[in-house]
Input
Amino acid sequence: MSDLRKERQQARVQQPERDPAFLRKVIIAAVIVAALGVTYYVGYRHRMHRYDNFARCLSQRNVKMYGAWWCPHCIEQKKWFGDSFEYAPYIECGVPGDTTQVLQVCRDAGIKHFPTWQFPPTGERVEGEMPLGDLSMRTGCPLNE
Output
């Protein structure tokens, strides 16, 4: 046998055998981490988009929310919807970068305070934050929590 071949054979003999129990533990840990990741993602998506149908229903019923980007009550109202707010019937009244001007569409509608909710067919208005449960009762849109 050549010296190089002997060295290779000796190196193979000196390598410690992999412990099957250790390998099993690594695989189990990886599966657990993956399962937790999937569970978190699915739970997060459900929690953040649970009001999609409710917000769409409000839009279909022609309910309107007038607000301004700088209004803390509007920001809070938006948080209650979470990511579902993208489907909410929102009309921006604030001019970007300016907290003193109001867009013409809101002046024409007679909006004085933010947020203001307007309900058809009577055009009744409610100023201020409205809990989602109250919106559901007033409009008949199911909240589906």
Summary: The mean pLDDT is 88. Residues 20-48 form the longest helix (29 residues). The first strand starts at residue 64 and ends at 67. Residues 93 and 104 are 8 Å apart (CA to CA).
